[in-house]
Design goal:
By secondary structure, this protein is of the alpha/beta class. 32% of the residues lie in helices and 27% in strands. It has ten helices and 13 strands. It has a six-stranded mixed sheet, with helices on both faces. Helix 2 crosses helix 3 and helix 7 packs across helix 10. The longest helix has 16 residues. 36% of the residues are buried.
């Protein structure tokens, strides 16, 4: 488990992380999301003691990272996959790490196979592709068979087979009761593996929620309905958990909390003709963009726009 309490980090006059508090619990995959500059990397570095908090605290499995006698066996971390001596082989790098914690050589062989590095284990890491370097970083994170696993952008550089491998790995680790904390900018991948989300913006907590609840709060699955009698249809659809919105005088309604099939059946039952019945599901990406739109530090210009000051 990872527990952050009012975690704050300042660099001179800039506050990178501002009073951040959250708990990452075992048995689930928790996604760590935020725009560029939101403080995700700084937070992850503080979790494992690479940066010291200005104030606040963070513990892993009940202790500060530096207090663990064998950190690799408590938390496995991937922050920078290329932080490997380029002259060492993949197996040599893992053996060197294992020696620091008394981890047996058989465990090195296990993670080499687990990460799909068997055919390149004797090759120098400096010659690895981005994807192979990523696999080596993940193998190193798993070397101590840790209860907590924290990975920053784990699918970066992986091919489709590697991406599928990561999905299966993360869900299997969580199913074993481990704490899994994953940072990513790929919303499609997060939506496939994460159950819980910690979302930050400008160093502050924006949401501590489930994927389902975030999407629901952003509009969830909505249905667009057009009918000649919107007022009557609104009355027919009224009920617990159902929300119907629409402009006065318009034939169109937006409905959440009930499926398009149910709307069609109720309309037919009451003799209300429909002109349109279209389902639209809000994606995790859309919900994320809506939540973080005021917390984005770096905006790209729209196509066709030019920079410059107004006359």
């Amino acid at each position: 488990m990872i527990d952050a309490q009012r975690l704050t980090k300042r660099y001179g006059g800039k506050t990178a992380v501002d009073g951040l508090g959250f708990t990452v619990r075992p048995g689930t995959v928790t996604g760590f999301l935020g725009p560029n500059g939101a403080g995700k990397s700084t937070t992850m570095r503080m979790i494992v003691g690479l940066d010291a908090p200005t104030s606040g605290s963070v513990t892993v499995n009940g202790r500060r990272y530096a207090r663990h006698r064998a950190p690799l066996q408590e938390v496995g971390v991937l922050l920078e996959a290329r932080s490997v001596h380029p002259g060492r082989s993949a197996r040599g790098h893992l053996r060197a790490l294992a020696l620091t914690h008394g981890i047996p050589r058989r465990r090195v062989d296990e993670v080499v196979e687990l990460a799909g590095l068997g055919s390149v284990a004797k090759k120098r890491a400096g010659a690895f592709s981005l994807g192979m370097g990523q696999r080596l970083g993940i193998a190193a994170a798993l070397l101590g068979d840790p209860q907590t696993v924290m990975l920053d952008e784990p699918v970066n550089g992986l091919d489709p087979e590697g991406v599928r491998w990561i999905r299966n790995l993360l869900t299997s680790l969580a199913a074993e009761g481990r704490t899994v904390f994953v940072s990513s900018h790929l919303m499609s991948e997060v939506s496939l593996v994460a159950d819980h989300l910690i979302i930050v913006g400008r160093g502050r907590l924006l949401a501590d929620t489930t994927v389902r609840d975030l999407v629901r709060e952003a509009g969830g699955d909505s249905v667009k309905v057009a009918t000649a009698d919107p007022a009557r249809l609104r009355d027919v659809l009224a009920g617990p958990g159902v929300e119907v919105t629409g402009r006065v005088g318009s034939e169109e309604l937006q409905v959440t909390g009930v499926s398009a099939r149910e709307i069609g059946l109720k309309a037919a039952e009451h003799g209300i003709p429909l002109f349109e019945l279209t389902s639209k599901a809000v994606s995790l990406e859309e919900a994320f963009m809506e939540l973080t739109r005021d917390a984005v530090e770096y905006h790209g210009a729209a196509t066709g726009e030019t920079s410059g000051s107004a006359a």
